[in-house]
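Supplementary Methods. Inverse-folding protocol.

Structures were first reduced to a discrete structure-token string of length 296. This string, shown here, constituted the complete conditioning input.
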């Protein structure tokens, strides 16, 4: 049996043997079109996304097969992964929103993880064609046929916008606009325990804090997308500039895992901040409603 370490080393050697075909100036910051469907340009990162996603779906279907009461080995592996992720995210999201949020979070984690690691496959980003300037005969750019989906800022923006829209839908369904407005702008102090002047001063403070919170919510798609893109694109450049040096190769395996987890964890935290007033804090939820009624 060939060990996993030997397979990774072999992949590193194969990938490094093709780096000479890449452009000397490094990896392009944007995905490059390799063909068009009508007026729609199809980029190398889009092709990689479709291909890797198809392989992922087929692999999971093959691994699980037909679900059984007594699980097969492949089904047990997938159930173990799902149970592990549920144990991490359920305390954050809360049991109320978990049935809707959990499929989204699992898809985010698996999708981003596999696409982060797709840049480590042999020949990804290193085979393609050279664009030659006809007048001078010099190479002006290199267009790889395949690029990781998450190394394209358009791809990470799409993921971040999906996260933001899903957050809004889940919050509206399981918390409602009233709870959302109170969590953002409402005075969380107990009116009975404070002098009236101090209570209304705190109301102004909470209002100002709410405005800052709204700004932070609106820039979440930017921070989520840029963080993921920057780490994956930076790692891709690092590997190409070092000819897929083995130590950096293993480092990027870890970075891909961490970035997939960070993106998914932040999405769950954003949902939980509004929706998870918890089964353990049911009275607190009623207290919020009472405080809102008093404010009005």
């Amino acid at each position: 049996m060939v060990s996993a370490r030997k397979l990774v080393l072999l992949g590193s050697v194969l990938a490094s043997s093709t780096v000479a075909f890449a452009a000397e100036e490094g990896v392009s910051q944007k995905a490059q079109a390799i063909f068009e469907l009508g007026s729609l340009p199809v980029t190398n990162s889009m092709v990689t996304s479709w291909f890797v996603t198809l392989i992922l779906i087929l692999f999971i279907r093959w691994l699980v097969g037909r679900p059984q009461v007594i699980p097969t080995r492949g089904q047990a592996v997938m159930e173990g992964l799902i149970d592990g992720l549920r144990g991490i995210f359920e305390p954050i999201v809360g049991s109320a929103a978990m049935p809707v949020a959990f499929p989204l979070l699992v898809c985010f984690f698996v999708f981003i993880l596999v696409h982060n690691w797709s840049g480590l496959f042999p020949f990804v980003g290193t085979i393609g064609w050279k664009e030659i300037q006809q007048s001078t005969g010099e190479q002006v750019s290199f267009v790889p046929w395949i690029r990781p989906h998450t190394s394209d800022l358009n791809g990470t923006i799409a993921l971040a916008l999906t996260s933001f829209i899903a957050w809004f839908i889940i919050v509206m369904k399981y918390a409602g606009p009233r709870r959302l407005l109170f969590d953002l702008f409402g005075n969380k102090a107990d009116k009975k325990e404070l002098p009236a002047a101090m209570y209304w001063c705190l109301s102004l403070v909470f209002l100002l804090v709410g405005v800052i919170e709204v700004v932070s919510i609106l820039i979440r798609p930017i921070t989520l997308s840029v963080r993921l893109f920057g780490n994956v694109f930076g790692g891709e450049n690092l590997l190409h500039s070092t000819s897929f040096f083995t130590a950096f190769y293993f480092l990027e395996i870890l970075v891909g895992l961490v970035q997939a987890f960070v993106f998914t964890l932040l999405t769950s935290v954003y949902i939980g901040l509004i929706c998870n007033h918890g089964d353990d804090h049911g009275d607190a939820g009623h207290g919020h409603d009472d405080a809102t009624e008093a404010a009005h």
